[in-house]
## 1
Amino acid sequence: MKFNNLGLIPLLLQAVNDKGYTNPSPIQKKAIPLILKRKDVLASAQTGTGKTAGFTLPLLQILSKKSISHHRKIRALILTPTRELAAQIYDNVFEYSKYLELRSTVIFGGVNQNPQVSKIRNGIDILIATPGRLLDLENQRLLSLRNVEILVLDEADRMLDMGFQRDINKIMNLLPINRQNLLFSATFSKEIKKLAKGILNNPVMVETSPQNTTVEAIIQYVYKVDKSKKSSLIIQLIKEGNWKQVLVFTRTKHGANNLCKK
Ligand code: AMP
């Protein structure tokens, strides 16, 4: 399947073409047509699968269908847990929208709010945000979410891991009830399912890999061993197995240094 079979408009296909992509990734093939049909989507997708284009391209298409009013309002909100992710998504949105009359900006904490506020004041259609800074600016009445038509929750599992549950709930209360919701998560814990239930309406599930499973080709072994004997065990395993390439994860930097020396 090619990009031009997904129902995307030529101005977006041109932007995709400029990026040099030849074929849509599995998540893009599945998610793009559903989002264009205005479905709520619950997608399991990890970073690196092309999920950002998977939600950004149809989102841009939907927004570009309506003519832009003189006074722009935030019509799409993309929530993401970290500033790095927010900045990456913004770069994607910026590039894919280069042939469209849509404006976007990104906000996150830890930096002066003024440049972010002036971009919002100038009028934007798409806002990419981390939850804390978003609520902060909303509390100061520096932005309004009352006109949001599409909500994207990106890396929802990480948002919960980072303790954003309460912030997410608060943000949901600031949005109109009628909107399209897209939730992306690498894992599907009980908590994510609960979150999704509270936010999405009759969502279509999109999976590109089986839920919460490990790669079949990998055999996993567990050794129960006293803490004090862990390093000697791994050294013994490496020696006996004559392993030439080994990737070892440790809990702390200090532990990694110690083990490495041994
Ligand atoms: P993401 O999972 O959204 O972080 O994307 C991972 C990387 O894949 C990014 O560098 C994208 O620019 C790239 N990418 C996205 N879609 C495609 C595609 N269809 N073909 C090739 N690369 C892609």
## 2
Amino acid sequence: MKLCGLTGGAGMGKSTAAGFFLQLGARVVDTDEIARELVRPGQPALAEIQREFGAEIISSAGELKRDQLARLVFADSAARQKLEAILHPRIRERWLAQIKIWRQENCAPAIVVIPLLFETGAESHFDKIICVACSAASQRERLLARGWTPEEIQQRIAAQWPVEQKISRSDFMVWTEGAPEIHAQQVGRILAKL
Ligand code: ADP
């Protein structure tokens, strides 16, 4: 089984690419989804987050106020490191467990979506790395459309490696400036090579 890491900048099209890989028969595990599962009510990571960031970060229904926490950690790198220390080891444990199962089945190529693949030093786990990228102007437009303020965009981009560096260390690049069909074709060509 070929194991690929899929990364790229915020809003550059990682989830869309992952969807195309899935449609074309690859197995996909998305670390953003794992992160959301890990902070559901009752999960130990949520209790740790509450201890670290205070009870006000949890709603009266027991749910994590994700937007509030995101604003807090992207404005304060020490806080972000604390959150990452709680989440990253657990996220890695989960996708590694999934990969172990897929390896036993010796199935189709598996794709792990990891926005911070290089930043967290995860390269060595993968046979190949795919970087999803677009221009800085399109990225900004897409993130504004997501409702992020210019300040939030700047903070979140600053919290990641520049995409050029990610591209230069990847085996494949998907350029998402064009139409979704062109994006899907690029994914198909990569999958055929894996
Ligand atoms: P990420 O997972 O990297 O944050 P998403 O796939 O969630 O990115 O979002 C990418 C955004 O860019 C979507 O709103 C999508 O509609 C838009 N977009 C425009 N053109 C493309 C393209 N060719 N491929 C992927 N996304 C595109």
